[in-house]
Amino acid sequence: MTPEEASWVVSSVEVGCLFSPFPSTFLADHYGRKLSMLFATPLFFIGLCLTIYIKTFWSLCLARFVAGFSMGIPWTILPLYLGEIATPKARGAITSFFHVAWGLGCLFPYCVGPFLPFDMFTYVTFSLSVIFLICFAWQPESPYYYVMRGKPKEASKMLKILRGSHAPDLLQKELEEIQLEVKKSLEEKASWIDIFTNPADRKALLLIIIVGVVSFLSGQNAILTYATDTFSKFSNNFIAPDYITIAVGVVALLGSVFSVFTSDRFGRRFLLLISSIGCMISLVIASAYFYLDSNTSVDVSSYSWVAPVAIMSYNLFVTAGMHPVCVTYTSELFLTSTRGVASSISGINLTFCSFLVLKFYEPISAAMGIYFAYLCYALTCLIGMVLFYYMMPETKGKTFLEIRESLKR
């Protein structure tokens, strides 16, 4: 493929992801969070067949489109599911597992890709979907879904599975809180239109869009996707490009794990600020190295470790802060009846930003240099730092109703 064709194959996954959030919301509200996410695996199988049996540029684009559509289903529904099954005190940690899983998903192909032929690599990565189908089929449904469908006995049963049956009084109290939250949602006659007309929902939507735009326009998807190619262009790397990519994936996973333990301890706003500052500094350092190496006569061969370490540092900060907080906010800031639509809008926003980053990384790098792309990502983080400081609320340890009241104030 030409670089232009490769950029379309890489970014077509995000085009597919644009089309799945709203159908996913419909499926989640009518057939349940659990069943809707299980539906993604058969779609991934279609992408597998297109990839293996029809090896052309257009079939790869279509396969990536189908894979993106499939990916958008759990990407939209999982934040709802995690937020609804978690207790208020553990919601930050539970929703952070979303990006722990994402980090594992990125790391796995980095580790096996360099050592497998194309077809085998495709089969091995698809096996993760099969494992998911087998394991997740046994998981409990969200109690909020059953309350929404008028099935309090089923909701109580799910709570016993999730919390254990050792404290029936606490379970009954939590069930009553869920019923109250859902009832309040219905009394306010909330709908997807309210996300734009209701001041509290409009404010919440603005907040998750800001976090999403900053976190994804900071460039992680492009940096991870083109990591091996980027480091292959510099001859003085201290380790082979494939192994640098694996190391970057490991660090991104560690950042996701770190967020599990810090989200409920330090709070969402603190993590956003530290994450944006750390990302900005790391990207500036990487940009400076690439500029000196490519655009000047300065010999930086003895400092070839600087760019990989800076990129690892960036991935640590972005996966420890901005990415998981974006998911947590999506699960916390909305009513039950509008949470699904809000997640859909957030998913479309994230997908569009990811598409821009993936599609234009190659043209910008070719025209201006890799350093310029990284400099743009650093500027995004700087703008995000200012917005996070002045606009982001703290939701640590609050119930959905308490968060709702604070948004109204």
SSE ordering: HHHHHHHHHHHHHHHHHHHHH
Q: State the share of residues found in helices, binned by percent.
A: over 70%
Radius of gyration: 22 Å
State the secondary-structure class: mainly alpha
Average of the residue pLDDT scores: 86
* DSSP strand tally: 0
Task: List the total number of helices.
Answer: 21
**Biggest sheet record:** none
- Give the amount of beta strand, in percent: under 5%
Rounded to the nearest angstrom, the distance between the terminal CA atoms is 55 Å
The low-confidence runs, each spanning 5 or more residues with pLDDT under 50, are none
What is the 3D form? Answer: globular
Please specify the SSE layout and strand pairing:
Layout: H1 3-18, H2 21-31, H3 33-38, H4 40-53, H5 57-85, H6 91-112, H7 118-136, H8 143-148, H9 152-163, H10 168-187, H11 194-197, H12 199-217, H13 220-225, H14 227-232, H15 241-266, H16 268-295, H17 306-320, H18 322-332, H19 336-368, H20 370-391, H21 400-408
Helix pairs in contact: 1-5, 1-19, 2-5, 2-19, 4-5, 4-7, 5-6, 5-18, 5-19, 6-15, 6-18, 9-10, 12-18, 12-19, 12-20, 15-16, 15-17, 16-17, 16-18, 16-20, 19-20
